[in-house]
Amino acid sequence: MSQPVAHYAPGTHPDIPAPASTVGVRGWLLHNLLSTPLNVGLTVLSLYLVYVVIPPLMEWVLIDASWRGETREDCDRVGACWVYIRIWFKQLMYGRYPVDQLWRINTAYVVLILAAIPLFMARFQYKHWVAVFLLVVYPVFAYVLFYGDTAGLELIETPLWGGLFLTLVIALSGIVASLPIGIVLALGRRSDMPVVRAICVAFIELWRGVPLITVLFMSSVMFPLFMPEGVNFDKLLRALIGVMLFSAAYMAEVVRGGLQAIPKGQFEAAQSLGLSYGKMMGLIILPQALKIVIPGIVNTFIGLFKDTTLVLIIGLFDFLGMAQAVATNPDWLGFYVEGYVFVAFGFWIFCFSMSRYSQHLERKLHTGN
Question: What's phi and psi for 14, nearest 5 deg?
Fold first, then answer.
């Protein structure tokens, strides 16, 4: 005898469960890794490469590595010698900065972290004041701490700066300065005034047309030759200016791409409200344009962070440069691989963090919509 057919009011029929082959771990594997013969082959090849590479790497990095000791004789060359990194850790982090003055750098780090925490708190109401402190007050505070020669602090010349500390100084200075300069250049390139547009175009194309290593070399060697006699700038300052202007040229093109993506109706709507050019850009156009190009902006920042390694060409020992310098120590010859791995991991931490934060901003601001 057949079962009676159930009748449901429109819109009240219970949902039919999804097939087991499309949900859960099994569904994910079938859909992403085993959906076609090609994907099956690529999955098998990937698993084989993981099997070949990962276990020996883990043995070298962790299992067979040497962690304790004071000399190279304490290192078993079967695995990595992390004793080498521990012995030279201060040089890799701070360069040749005097040991008894390292509290100044650490204090600046702590203040920066504590000041930046409120920016990540959604309900904090005074973020604009925190931003003003970080952009205006903190650079002066950090410079006084790092350089000294005032407020009773010992003078520490910039040639003694190095390691990760110097990398962060160059990268953060370039990042903070390149974005506003790039915005101004992007707006100037789209200006209706021919002179302003020509100057901005010439600036952008000039700086984008030469490699950064050339810019650093010119700023360090050639620039002082054009200065009046007796006038000289610190080598680090010249490098900072070169990095800022170089990065600003690339940032200008990223921002210009965002400006061109804004529909013309947005400009016309802002003008119809009687807004001035400054208010139109600051309140209507730039917020939308910058939101669109968040991936490009962060990509430029990451490239700038990695390009700081080029300052070694002008005698500034950044994170990578200091690793190369300590590798030449006669007592520790042959341990350069550990230094490069440590530096690579440090760069990856910072670059990966910037990438993840940019993805967080994209989701928060719905840049895909």
Answer: -65, 145
Q: Supply the pTM of this predicted model.
A: 0.84
Are the CB atoms for 365 and 291 separated by under 8 Å?
yes
- State the maximum Cα–Cα separation within the chain, in Å, rounded to a whole number: 109
Q: What are the pLDDT tens digits along the chain (369 aa)? A: 555 655 656 666 666 666 666 667 777 777 777 778 888 888 899 999 999 999 888 988 888 888 888 887 878 778 888 888 999 999 999 999 999 999 999 999 999 999 988 888 878 888 888 888 988 899 999 999 998 888 788 888 888 999 999 999 999 999 999 999 999 999 999 888 889 999 999 999 999 899 988 888 888 877 777 777 776 778 888 889 889 999 999 999 999 999 998 888 888 888 888 888 888 888 888 888 888 888 899 999 999 999 999 998 888 899 999 999 998 888 888 888 889 999 999 999 999 999 998 888 888 877 555
Q: Which two tokens stand for residue 139?
A: 């650079």
For the domain made up of 82-97+169-365, give the CATH fold.
MetI-like fold (1.10.3720)
Produce one character per residue of 71-89: b if its CB has 16 or more CB atoms within 10 Å, e if not: ebeebeeebbbbbbbebbe
Question: Can you give the residue ranges of every domain in the chain?
Answer: 22-55, 82-97+169-365, 100-155
In angstroms, the CA 156 to CA 169 distance is 15
Q: What would the two tokens of residue 345 be? A: 């991991």
